[in-house]
Design goal:
The chain is built from 10 helices and 9 strands. By secondary structure, it is of the alpha/beta class. The strands form 2 sheets. A 7-stranded mixed beta sheet has the order 1-9-8-2-5-3-4. Strand 8 and strand 9 form a beta hairpin.
Length: 290
């Protein structure tokens, strides 16, 4: 994308983000109609993913989940645009965190944390977590091919103090914090798809053989970080809550792949509660186990 094209797109998104939520949700309803009923955006991918994940559900149930998913996908789009201008007070109202005593007690012990989340609800809303903790909050990301949009997302995610770190630099950066005795909490989006040349482990996830990243487990075991799971819930349109739970305080004492299987199972349980809020249009299972 040329600089001029990016400037036009960014200016449009910047202006759109000025609109109040009630207007953006009207836009979301319009987008939903076009994605679902006109363009049928990735319809077969969505339906196939759902059918393979929930083989016991009827076709009517699958289609109903898909319809709800299109509406949620449109909502996350406009909500993310709104993050460009959202205020601190508004951000704190729209994503709250439960069980924060777990985090506070770990901070008192100067324990660093691996926080595992998934592409569920609106994961971008975690940019407001620095309001709720004394930790240095880091988030790991895979750089986008388009450098201009990559820089846009870095700026957006760091708006309230989150420090984005590329996955390739994660171990080095976390080691620097550890050596400086600075406790960190690092968010890993655990359900990204590894490149076929990077696959080191397969597990069963949503009824399918699934390649998973071992990053959260490797970091936790090497650096002795507590592992927490952040379960997002959509309370109502535009409002989310995170339920925090402990997966392990003693990562070095866990068996190989134990941490990975724990957080994969937790995410699976989350998805089964309200499946329409997961990222079904992603080609999650495009790489098959040989």
């Amino acid at each position: 994308m040329s600089s001029i094209s990016f400037a036009i797109v960014y200016s449009f998104l910047w202006l759109l983000g000025l609109f109040p939520f009630r207007c953006l949700y009207i836009l979301s309803d319009i987008i939903t109609f076009f994605l679902r009923d006109v363009f049928k955006y990735r319809q077969q991918i969505i339906l196939n993913n759902l059918r393979n994940s929930f083989p016991k559900k009827s076709d009517d149930e699958i289609k109903q989940i898909a319809r709800k998913y299109y509406a949620h996908l449109s909502d996350t789009f406009v909500e993310t645009i709104k993050l460009i201008h959202i205020s601190e007070s508004e951000m704190q109202k729209r994503c709250k965190y439960n069980n924060l005593t777990i985090v506070d007690e770990l901070f008192a012990q100067k324990r660093s944390i691996v926080a595992v989340i998934g592409h569920y609800g609106n994961w971008e809303y975690m940019i407001g977590f620095p309001f709720f903790t004394k930790y240095n909050v880091l988030t790991l990301y895979k750089p986008l091919t388009n450098k201009k949009f990559n820089n846009f997302y870095i700026k957006l995610r760091s708006k309230f103090g989150v420090k984005p770190v590329s996955m390739k630099e994660s171990y080095k950066k976390l080691m620097e914090y550890k050596q400086g005795n600075i406790p960190t909490i690092t968010a890993f989006i655990s359900d990204q798809t590894p490149h076929k040349d990077e696959i080191q482990y397969w597990t069963n996830f949503l009824n399918q053989d699934t390649a998973v990243f071992l990053g959260p487990e490797k970091i936790a075991k090497k650096l002795d970080f507590t592992v927490l799971y952040f379960q997002m819930r959509k309370v109502k349109r535009g409002f989310y809550e995170m339920d925090i739970s402990t997966l392990t305080n003693n990562p070095k004492n866990t068996a190989e792949y134990e941490i990975t299987n724990l957080h994969v199972k937790k995410l699976e349980e989350t998805i089964k509660l309200q499946p329409e809020y997961w990222l079904w249009s992603h080609r999650r299972w495009k790489t098959k186990k040989v």
